[in-house]
Design brief:
This protein has about 210 residues and is α/β, with parallel strands linked by helices. The protein has six helices and 13 strands. The longest helix is centred in the last third of the chain and has 21 residues.
Amino acid sequence: MPKTKLRRVMLDRRKALSTDEYKGKSILIQQRLISLEEYAAAKVVALYSSIHNEVEMDMVMTHALSSGKKVVLPTMSDGVLLLRELTGVSNMRQGTFGILEPCESGKIVDPCQADIIVLPGIAFDLSGHRVGYGKGCYDKALHRLEGEGKLVAVCYDFQLVDEIMGEPHDVRVDVIVTEQRVVYVCQSEKTLQSSASKTMLSDSESPEGH
């Protein structure tokens, strides 16, 4: 399915979630995220402020701050996504696109300093490809961190599809957390490759394969 159509379909489906549905699923996803070893070990955690029925992050935000972790959130500056430190849940203001972000008193933090970076998205696949809103903000800011195990996606399980036709500039995530499962992309790819190899071997061994 083309990205534009997939984006539209997923946005419509997410928009159709009732308040009870998206809040209930968000709680489950946040609980799974907090239970990750990567989160437990992290000293600097990059989160986001949710909009339009995205997976909420308020529970994780509060937990991280109360646990003594440094929390950073996205902020936009001249069209560039930066990460700014959040000193408290009350120290936020409305920023670009109406999204809450830390007040300017928070320091700008290089993404490389974050131990895990939690990303929202409209759709993901088992190879870590991501479909966002199409502006490329996360792609440009985080591309250099691909494959380091830092990029953690959160989404509802229906947003996780088998395959997305990724492009070279698209950032790929390392872990995907839904209300039903946690997917480690490297392990998922090995499983898919193994399944494909078994299928090819089975075909070659059948009469039709000779």
